[in-house]
Amino acid sequence: MPLNHQFLLDNRPEGAATADNFRLVAVDTPALQDGQVLVRHHYLSLDPYMRGRMNDAKSYAACQPLGEVMQGGTVGEVMESRHPGYAAGDKVVGMGGWQEWSVVDAGVPGSLRKVDTSVVPLSYYLGAVGMPGVTAWYGLTQIIDPKPGQTLVVSAATGAVGSAFVALAKARGCRVVGIAGGPEKCAYATDELGFDACIDHRQNGDLKSMAQALKAACPDGIDGHFENVGGYILDAVLLRANAFARVALCGMIAGYDGQPLPLANPALMLINRMRVEGFIVSEHMQLWPQALAELSQLVAAGKLRPRESVAQGLAAAPEAFLGMLKGRNFGKQLVKLI
Amino acid sequence: MPLNHQFLLDNRPEGAATADNFRLVAVDTPALQDGQVLVRHHYLSLDPYMRGRMNDAKSYAACQPLGEVMQGGTVGEVMESRHPGYAAGDKVVGMGGWQEWSVVDAGVPGSLRKVDTSVVPLSYYLGAVGMPGVTAWYGLTQIIDPKPGQTLVVSAATGAVGSAFVALAKARGCRVVGIAGGPEKCAYATDELGFDACIDHRQNGDLKSMAQALKAACPDGIDGHFENVGGYILDAVLLRANAFARVALCGMIAGYDGQPLPLANPALMLINRMRVEGFIVSEHMQLWPQALAELSQLVAAGKLRPRESVAQGLAAAPEAFLGMLKGRNFGKQLVKLI
């Protein structure tokens, strides 16, 4: 069996995460038991939620255990199978973690899913037609639930979730305004992704400036917001929200490294009669087939062509992950393993 | 026509409201036109929402205009009628404002409603079987939507909304924990109103202490919360909230006098996958008949017997109102006018 390189969580961050939090090891891949398959990972997904799980704090998921392989989504190829539902050569998506190979109990529900790469590229199953895409779909359809013509805002607009969000929202006839970091990302958002406008948070780094930019970009106010960041951006959105606006709380990455970030004026949720709802998409698996079907159709129709940032080789994973947390990625962050 | 005493809003508060914000005047009641009725007010309702409307700020309702009669709910008796639907002697509830008499265009929908005082005392139509009761009903049934056995928390527990909330929630098989100010109110909450426990916020005046008190009173965590106050109480509730907890945001009186009160850790809404929703009950008039029917039945069955704080005479209205904002009332605050 092949030698397998893995990244373990070695210790927990104090403040910002660093490369020293991770440890690279090499282990032999164990022999397959009945019901197991051996998967060679082609791509590893890097996602902001991983940072939250590195903390030893109450969160929605069990925290990442110390000394174990960093958890994460993977796509790859079945190299050997002792499960009747899988054969060598099958392309599969799973939660293989930060490693080159995984041995999977393929009979466990949700452990592995065969995918069709005739239309949708394999890597997209970690992004637009995977967890990030379904995340955008859930927040849009199950919480924001917009009407045609309404104005929606999404932060981290050019990332995996944001790029799926705008495609799904434009298909529903909404005006969609993004928030992203830097002129290059903002130009890409409007020129390539279909955003009606995009606000550069680096040029609007405080509440007053962001609120003014939102007012200019959303002349009819904000009816729905998909929050990936938190902090002053959410404060600014609340200032421009219309009556009965909905906020899908997906991530608050701005506060992952240290003290909780307060919400300046929660009374605006009352004044605007808003609904603010947090969610985690893995708790709504019954909706995934419907979401993935729509996302696949958007890809097939050329209406969802997300950009990818691809780091090369497992050893590059920690720096790619830390860079993503700082917004240095441009589109869905992946690590290509072969 | 009778001489009518009125309180006008003379100027807006800077910081805390004071008696000088109001001005007492005497005017002649105008002669009735066709379609109008003359109502003599028996009781005037004093409610926390009035404080918010005294500010010249964006809010859910138009702010109280300067130089005009303070708006507010009233119950009284029709003394003279030029509308075919009303006759002298009818008992009615309306928005007569801080004055002794009102002339009402009775054909305007929602302007006046005849009430039955055979079982429900007239004053209750301003509290348990009126706007505050429907407010409790809406937040409980339309936002919190509890299951039997779940734990619910309500702040301002012994007020008009809190006392209706506990009766409605106990009827649904919930554990209900109140938050009130002082040992007398807390004893009344558990001994008379049916709360399973009541926390004295004067004895738990900071986040840590309140969170510990909530942990003790809610050993299974908090599934639903009805917020009348805001500030550190809401912060503490978020720390003890269960997954998928719901918060009905009804009032945030703690922040009415000055700077907005921040929410310390909004990421808890995400971590707990909570739904937080603001509402104003007057925007859901279609649900009032259903709510009022249940509230009337609870009163008739002796399961909802709210306490009232009754000030005597219109001149006492400002001091009674300011005292209520400081929590000096005990139960529904009314002004008895005759």
From TrEMBL, chains A, B:
CDD domains from the UniProt entry: PGDH
Domain of life: Bacteria
UniProt keyword annotations, A-Z: Oxidoreductase
Pfam family of the protein (one): ADH_N_2
InterPro entries assigned: ADH-like_C, ADH_N_2, ER, GroES-like_sf, MDR_fam, NAD(P)-bd_dom_sf
Enoyl reductase (ER) domain sequence ranges: 17-335
Database matches in SUPFAM superfamilies: GroES-like, NAD(P)-binding Rossmann-fold domains
Name this polypeptide is given: NADP-dependent oxidoreductase
